[in-house]
Amino acid sequence: MQRIVSGGGLKSHQQNCVMKTLALLLLTACAVHAAALPEAAKIDSLLAADWQKNNLQANAPASDDVLVRRLYLDIAGRIPTVEERQDFISSNDPQKRAKLIDTLLASDGYTSHMFNYFADLLRLTDNTKGKITAEAYEEWMKKELKANTPYDQLVKKLLTTEGGVWDSGSIGFYQRDENKLDHLAYTVQVFLGTSIVCAQCHNHPFDKWTQMDYYGMAAFTYGMDTKGGGANEIKIPKKPQGGKQLPEFLAKMSPKERRAYVKAHPEEIAKLKEEAKKPSASNEDLQQVRKALGDVMKPLRYTSVTNHDGKLPALPDDYKYDDGKPGQTIEARAIFGHDAKPKEGQTRVQAFADWMANPENPRFTTVIANRMWKKVFGLGLIEPVDEMTDSTVPSNPALMEYLTQLMIEKQYSLKSFLRVLYNTDTYQRAAGTQEIALGEISHFTGPMLRRMSAEQVWDSFITLTKGNLDGAVDDENQRLHQYMNDLSLFLTTMKEKGPEGIIAAAKEGMAQRKANDQKLDELRAKIAEQKEQGTASPADAKMLANAANKLRRETNNNLLENLVGEERAEALIKGYNPQKKPEMKRPKMDKAALANLSKEQRKDLLKNAAASNMVAARASELPSPARPGHILRTFGQSDREVIDNANEDASVPQALTLLNGPIAESLTSPISLLSQQLAKAGQPDQKVALLYEALLSRRPTPQESATLDSVLRERGNQAIPDITHALITGSQFLFIQ
């Protein structure tokens, strides 16, 4: 054995041994913590190797107080209730963290929170022309997330969706954007993490994609027609057609019987032939029918997607590159990876879906694995997550490669994948507070300190005022499905009647319709005349407009009744009105406490009841997105116009909202859950302890208790509202530690 005679060499050798021993102990500790999940231990070991390489240490372990709040916010999208927090803290089960993770992943809170994530990513909005389809799309997404549909299958369902909204709400994926070329850019950015939008108009200035590449990709989905709405399946002739050549009773006869009848009734046959020469409807009648049908079929607009597989895009008129000519039709071609040729019996879009959501696709799996890592740890291994190029290198290549393979091994189950990440020793460490500057690398010695999203802020206030409402997340909108069934039956009836039946039904009320049209023309002329002369008051103009709308409705309603019958027509005429959500149960005040209130306090109670009712449903159950000016938008909820467009920046309006806005009023209202709990808490110091548990999921520190004791001695219970406001406006409430 070689002797080491140099003192410096011996010291260096000893240091190396110590470092290796420490690293081994760290890896062993990680493996012991996540022994039940070897995949979590593997992630920890890959991170530990990176820390050792960069002379870094892991963050300190997170306490139960910190972790219970973090898990509820990260998985269920809200803070825990006081009871949920106490149950976790008081448990001595060594597996309580892993069990809580499993419980939350199986909860409706997970569905609600994950829906908010995908709503931002896919730009889900019900503020569109096709509101019915938009709401059905949102409901469909919630069901898929609740069922834990594998991500690759989810993407395939979206890409290949077809039919009416009554068949599947997934058609909202294509209905989201009328421009097919824009839709393709969003699709590639979301699912492949690749921004090719620049190549829609010209060759990409910073990447290899050409305009020809863009149109080749667009060809896969270009045939997805969103404008038909079922009406294009009903063909009314543009010109008068001849009548039936034979009456029904003659058509049923055998040739021999028919010849005998014709010979025996020559005068009758001559009249029938003369009638047959007359068109079934005049030009004017057909014009009226098409006009009336267009109005009647309006409810079917934006409710279907039809795949015209033969339809291909053409290069724009200003195309200027040598590889094609303006107006040239472009065949479908994948921009990277393996070929996307349709197999026998496949459409182009089906081949595109198979190519997209394929483990062999060089970006599909990496992108979703990286997105989920960022969702859990606050920063992606690849940043930005949706601007990958061929030269992109993850901050930890070995870890990114493992996460990609892990997603495949978990068969794209997002719950299974997230379960591994939440069970890592690294996730369960204190959050890192050092801001990562642009261009710098994060080595993930723990999760990043993050600010709550707008939805997490809202849903946490829901928890404070109403308790756990995870079970109130809607599973199915019965009124929506009833109306979609009405639309489906309407379209089926129209198809069964065919053009001749529709023309016949329209002709029944033709005289009345023409009379109404004449009255409408007279009203329009009168309105125009009054506007020109400036003699009409706003009330007169409104009265004339209402009269015109009434005539138009009567005309359409009569035709609808002739087509589908009075009962079914009535349901269609009523249209779709979203059902009102049942009023959330709110804590009732004890009769004794209510009796002790003064008149002024009772007035305040009634005033605050409205605010309390306003905060009555989780963010995922509200209009998507919330209207401008709503608290959700104030705290940075995405407007759903751009992918992943939410922001978590602080602002003055947010501070004012927390200080004296309706959400603060709902929290301090006597009928809120928190107020009810505070009323039963006893002494002022016990109330303060409860406030800390409810808002921060921990008890006050000795220093905080000492500071507040003097305030409580001076002001007693009157200090509680001020302490409440101080806590909800502080960074500890708004941040996920």
- Please state the structural category: mainly alpha
Number of strands: 5
User: Which residues sit in consecutive blocks of at least 5 with pLDDT less than 50?
Assistant: 1-15, 17-35, 582-587, 609-613
Distance between the termini: 52 Å
Q: Tell me the strand order in the biggest sheet.
A: 1-3-2
What characterizes the major β-sheet?
3 strands, antiparallel
Quick one: overall form? Answer: globular
Oligomer: single chain
The portion of residues assigned to helices is 55-70%
Strand content: under 5%
Mean pLDDT: 84
Strand and helix map with partners:
Elements: H1 7-33, H2 38-53, H3 64-76, H4 82-90, H5 96-105, H6 108-121, H7 131-146, H8 151-160, E1 163-164, H9 172-175, H10 180-192, H11 211-221, E2 224-225, H12 248-251, H13 255-264, H14 266-277, H15 283-296, E3 304-307, H16 348-356, H17 364-377, H18 397-409, H19 414-422, E4 450-451, H20 454-466, H21 478-508, H22 510-533, H23 538-564, H24 566-574, H25 591-595, H26 599-614, H27 631-634, H28 652-660, H29 662-668, H30 673-679, H31 684-696, H32 702-715, H33 720-728, H34 731-734, E5 735-736
Helix pairs in contact: 1-2, 2-18, 3-5, 6-7, 8-16, 10-11, 15-21, 15-23, 17-18, 17-19, 21-23, 22-23, 23-24, 26-29, 28-29, 30-31, 31-33
Task: Report on the architecture of this protein.
With 737 residues, the chain is mainly alpha-helical. The protein is 57% helix and 2% strand. The protein contains 34 helices and five strands. It has helices at residues 7-33, 38-53, 64-76, 82-90, 96-105, 108-121, 131-146, 151-160, 172-175, 180-192, 211-221, 248-251, 255-264, 266-277, 283-296, 348-356, 364-377, 397-409, 414-422, 454-466, 478-508, 510-533, 538-564, 566-574, 591-595, 599-614, 631-634, 652-660, 662-668, 673-679, 684-696, 702-715, 720-728, 731-734; strands at 163-164, 224-225, 304-307, 450-451, 735-736. It has a three-stranded antiparallel beta sheet with strand order 1-3-2, with no helix packed on it. The longest helix is centred in the C-terminal third of the chain and has 31 residues, at 478-508. The model is unreliable at 1-15, 17-35, 582-587 and 609-613 (pLDDT under 50).
